Backbone:
């Protein structure tokens, strides 16, 4: 029998009245448990969250819900953000109410395929004969329109052809093969200098300049502001991945139990 889940992460949201007593109840400290849930084992899930989940967590949530299963997402934040995250996460039939967004997982399974029957063509019909004549005319016209050089044309002395080796040498001159100085970090806008060391741009906007100036022993700053909410809201490169939810003030971490 499929499992039903109530995932309570937003203290401002009251418990919905339609949740059965048999549903499994999780809190902020149970966010890491989703990785241990079997794929397609949940028929329905209720979620209360102050913000949208990360794309990776949404994808994992879509995996554990059974095909055709329902997700009811309640939030005290912006409903439009929740709706967008579910849409991009692969959910369908998304409907928004006053305080929640309801969506469904598609009924087809991952990797499902279906064969389509080819339309039968009645050979010998007038319509088929006309199509064959038209196709033959188009093929002949295409052959006439092709521009080509004959053997005699290539033998002429007045035709100068490019040397393939020269073309390759010109391309290799454009690429710096001495070291990975032109490689950019996909998470950074700043590039790498000629010495092979990463340097911040003059008008740095990715936060790398502040990192270079800051204290290396200080706690990392949050770029999205959701690090303290837990793994369900953290980016794939978050330094707090795997750690419990917390509230941070002046770099003092307090666990939320």
Residues:
């Amino acid at each position: 029998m499929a499992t039903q889940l109530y995932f309570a992460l937003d203290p401002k949201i009251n418990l919905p009245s339609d949740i059965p007593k048999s549903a499994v109840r999780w809190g902020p400290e149970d966010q890491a448990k989703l990785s241990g849930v079997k794929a397609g084992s949940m028929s329905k899930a209720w979620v209360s969250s102050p913000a949208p989940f990360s794309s990776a967590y949404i994808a994992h949530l879509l995996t554990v819900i059974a095909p055709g299963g329902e997700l009811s997402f309640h939030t005290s934040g912006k409903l439009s953000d929740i709706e967008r995250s579910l849409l991009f996460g692969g959910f369908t039939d998304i409907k928004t109410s006053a305080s929640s967004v309801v969506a469904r997982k598609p009924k087809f399974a991952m990797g499902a395929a279906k064969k389509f029957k080819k339309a039968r063509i009645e050979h010998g019909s007038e319509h088929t004969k006309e199509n064959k004549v038209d196709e033959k005319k188009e093929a002949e016209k295409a052959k006439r329109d092709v521009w080509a050089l004959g053997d005699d044309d290539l033998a002429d002395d007045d035709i100068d052809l490019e040397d393939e080796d020269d073309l390759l040498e010109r391309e290799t001159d454009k690429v710096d093969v001495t070291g990975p100085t032109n490689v950019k970090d996909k998470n950074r806008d700043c590039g790498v200098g000629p010495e092979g060391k990463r340097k911040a741009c003059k008008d740095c906007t990715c936060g790398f300049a502040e990192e270079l100036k800051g204290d290396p022993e200080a706690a990392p700053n949050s770029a999205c502001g959701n690090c303290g909410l837990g793994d369900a809201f953290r980016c794939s490169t978050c330094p707090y991945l795997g750690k419990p939810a917390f509230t941070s003030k002046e770099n003092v971490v307090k666990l939320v139990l």
